[in-house]
## 1
Amino acid sequence: MREQPSDLAARFEAVYEKNRDPWGLETRFYERRKRALSIASLPRERYGRAFEIGCSIGVMTEQIAQRVDDLLAVDVSPRAVAEARGRLVSLAHVRAECQEVPHDWPSGLFELITVSEVGFFMGADGLKQAAGLTAASLTQDGHVLLCHWRHPMSGWELNGDDVHRIFIEHSGLKVICEHLERDFRIDVLARETMPR
Ligand SMILES: C[S@@+](CC[C@H](N)C(=O)[O-])C[C@H]1O[C@@H](n2cnc3c(N)ncnc32)[C@H](O)[C@@H]1O
């Protein structure tokens, strides 16, 4: 983590200062359903080491935690991370850290990496870098979960379709499971396609 908060960190910190759950992750049916679809899309029942990028206040983290042995969840906003830590305090196999991806990137390999509703905020160059790092950090049989809102977002250059296209191209990974609807898309990636 850098000594000075980045512009991105300051931007999200201001969002969380106004509202501790800015996207209604705890309350909205839309978010609950999207999370349920995301988690249900993971092809394996159990994963070993997992990395969640953009964990916010830890609502999805809690659910990913049920399927993995060890989870590192990161977010650029210290307020969000503090909320996540409070929520996850009883889960000894989960760690929440304040980090900005791709500038910060953990060492070692992961069986599962999740990039949910966060890729747009990295910009195209950051996302390309994150995609390359993801591919390099994924175990041979690992999976990547992508889930993003598809509509234009004011103040941000990429929508969810852009994020998935760029990420897939720059990771070199293959889509093994996809869910597409008007508002969001989910893609699960792996090194090899599965026979259909
Ligand atoms: C919409 S929330 C995503 C919550 C959760 N992943 C989900 O899908 O329900 C986006 C989060 O990403 C964080 N974020 C944005 N850019 C980031 C980056 N480059 N690295 C880490 N976290 C980031 C924000 O602070 C915010 O908490």
Note: Strands lie at 47-53, 68-75, 94-98, 110-116, 138-149, 174-180, 184-190.
## 2
Amino acid sequence: MNKDIAKILDALSSEYGGGAYPGRSSEGLNPEWECDPFHVLIATILSQRTRDDNTRKASDSLFRKYGTMEAIAAADADDVAILIRPAGFPTQKARAIVECCRILIGEHGGTVPSETEDLLLLPMVGRKTAACVRSYAMGIPSVCVDTHVHRISNLMGLVHTKDPEATEFELMRIAPQDRWSDINRYIVRHGQEVCLPRRPRCEKCVVRGMCDSCPPGL
Ligand code: SF4
């Protein structure tokens, strides 16, 4: 039987308020960048395989020196790599980010495309990054599945899937479209604060009554 995912999201949203967005500046560099497609795209590439605090350090450092798409497109990838080192994989990410900016300028008139198919053609942009940009920066309902969303959706019994892509399609099937963007926003926060990967704090969990993995008696 399908669980009531809307009820789960309601409970999580009342617990976590603002939700998660990995590229938020820790220095308050420019609050508008947090919902600007270009800055969200670059911050989401930086966020791959690292923690949010590392993403913030790297994106602050990059955008402090190169604040625009044109500036990054003209930058030396080795210099970008030094700036983004805190996010890990600096050489790979720097090359992808510079190339991304060149493609956006050369093929999209200096804008970030909104179609998933177009986003997927950019370097280091997979389904998770594309959905994150559409959802957080463009307000287009999208299910952005990272490791937290994949892990916790399976723990709860919302889905029974083997990989993030299958989780994305299953969540799109069972969740109302107007809640798709809430899935990442609240489940990521839950994975960072309560449903921790190695030691879930089920006794503090607001959705434990709806979770298949909650120990008996809680
Ligand atoms: S009850 Fe435990 S396993 Fe289930 S979502 Fe909550 S913290 Fe995670």
Note: The radius of gyration is 18 Å.
